[in-house]
Design brief:
alpha/beta; five-stranded parallel beta sheet; 18 helices
Length: 490
């Protein structure tokens, strides 16, 4: 089904809805928690483990995880996905048999009929024979039940009985229960002890971190800016540039605070903020747009607080100022005053010992000069007096320490705005390294960087000290086939 784009999405140059709540695998973002859960369940399925439990808060991406699991199954896997947990035992058996193809085509279109205990036993026996027939084919069967916290006691007991189907070396049927955290509380009830003991593996989906929220938003905008029919966005080569619209860092941080890292809330809040930027005629979603979106959605905005990085930067700046202040104060007290002009006044007699003035006769001065080999005329004979300072000099005063001049350092290249160009993004580090090497050989300063999740690798060209240099590099990238690249400042 084709969904028409709104004026907002067309204004921002998007070709799909970036923050839709539908579980579209094109927009899958592999956070640290999501990646860990997907790896754990995939490994458990390969090892033929019987019962697995995946829990997470509302909106953390459990349904998206189920869809991603389905995409990893081999062709020799028979799968039954139960999306409606409010069913009876008969409903469960009927849906499993239908999904495994054990009912005739005529029966598949009919609602399940009430089953007697004998009929239920017969259906379980048919299921068991079917599972046994998969052993020589090296195939297996999997049941995934979403929203499992709503399952009733009888249905959970039937799940326990189904999990008993096994051979001497492996389980014949694997079951994945996906639900909210109270699913764990349900399984810990005394009457669920037998089922709880059969759980071979448990995984919990965590909310996104603040850094992951930024990567999550950028990832969705990048995918939405591409042609949905051009290629599979799960392995999307984003070398053709990025989205026209982007979120300011302050806006991303606020989205992370309001949503608490819940992907569903991130989508809803970002979608409304995107509309706010459209109404303001801007391609930059700022903090005001996010605040208006939160007010429209009636989402509580937490009190302003500094993030961990901001607090660390402030503390470091204060410590630096304290060190510089202490150094300046010590230097002002220890540094001696600047030397006076090289005029040596006669030493006052009173400074040595109180008494009458001492006058050096000219004859004594001449005799001293003869002894030292110098000649002194009588006119140069010095007369010292404690009451008369040397000619041209005012009476001496206590020295005043000079105030050191504080001169702001000249701005350097690192203080000015630096410009960088996002050239491409790849899912593998090897591909990013290969493109980086190609651009470097072409004379461009290219590097590859991993995002916060470690799942995507970006090829960045720069930095440049001026936008003109960045524009020249962008034209060179365009000539190399990298269309639609985006320049941004650091």
């Amino acid at each position: 089904m084709i969904i028409e784009l709104t004026a907002c999405e067309e204004f921002h140059g998007l070709r799909a809805r970036p923050f839709s709540l539908t579980p579209d695998l094109r927009f899958t973002y592999h956070s640290t928690s999501h990646t860990h859960a997907l790896e754990q369940i995939s490994q458990a399925l390969k090892r033929r483990e019987g019962l697995m439990v995946v829990t997470g808060e509302v909106g953390t991406g459990k349904t998206m995880l189920c869809r991603a699991l389905l995409d990893t199954f081999e062709t020799r896997t028979f799968l039954s996905v139960v999306l409606d947990p409010l069913l009876t035992v008969e409903d469960l058996l009927h849906q499993v048999l239908t999904d495994f193809g054990l009912l005739s085509a005529r029966d598949r279109g009919l609602p399940p009929l009430p089953l007697t205990e004998i009929a239920r036993h017969d259906m379980v026996a048919v299921l068991q024979r079917f599972l046994a027939s998969l052993i020589p084919l090296n195939a297996h069967a999997v049941i995934i039940i979403d929203e499992a916290q709503h399952l009733t006691g009888p249905v959970l007991e039937q799940v326990r009985l189904l999990s008993n189907f096994e051979t001497d070396s492996a389980k014949l049927l694997q079951i994945v229960l996906v639900g909210q955290p109270n699913l764990d509380l349900l399984l810990q009830r005394p009457d669920m002890q037998q089922l709880n003991q059969r759980v071979a593996r448990r995984c919990e989906l965590e909310p996104l971190t603040e850094a992951e929220v930024g990567d999550y938003i950028e990832r969705r905008l990048l995918v939405a800016s591409e042609d949905p029919s051009a290629k599979d966005a799960r392995d999307l080569d984003l070398s053709q540039g990025g989205a026209m619209v982007h979120f300011a860092p302050a806006a991303t941080a606020l989205v992370a605070q309001i949503s608490r890292g819940i992907p569903r809330l991130v989508n809803t809040l970002s979608d409304r903020a995107l509309e706010g930027a459209f109404e303001a005629g801007s391609h930059v979603v700022d903090r005001k747009a996010v605040l208006r979106a939160a007010e429209h959605l009636r989402l509580p905005v937490p009190a302003t607080r500094w993030s961990g990085r901001t607090r660390a930067a402030i503390i470091a700046a204060l410590l630096l100022l304290a060190i510089l202040g202490g150094w300046w104060w010590t230097r002002a007290r220890v540094t001696p005053p600047a030397p006076a002009p090289s005029v040596t006044p006669a030493t006052p007699a009173a400074a040595v010992e109180p008494g009458p003035s001492i006058v050096t006769p000219p004859e004594a001065a001449v005799a001293a000069d003869r002894a030292t080999g110098t000649a002194t005329s009588p006119a140069e004979t010095t007369t010292a007096s404690p009451a008369a300072p040397p000619d041209g000099l005012a009476p001496s005063a206590p020295p005043v320490p000079p105030v050191p001049s504080v001169t702001s350092p000249a701005p350097t290249a690192t203080d000015a705005a630096r410009f960088e160009i996002t050239a491409a993004s790849f899912k593998t580090e090897e591909r990013a390294a290969a493109v980086t090497s190609t651009l470097t050989q072409a004379g461009l300063p290219a590097v590859s960087r991993a995002d916060a999740s470690g799942q995507w690798y970006r090829v960045v060209v720069g930095p440049f000290d001026s936008k003109e240099s960045a524009l020249d590099a962008q034209q060179q990238l365009d000539g190399l086939g990298f269309k639609g690249t985006r320049i941004y400042t650091r």
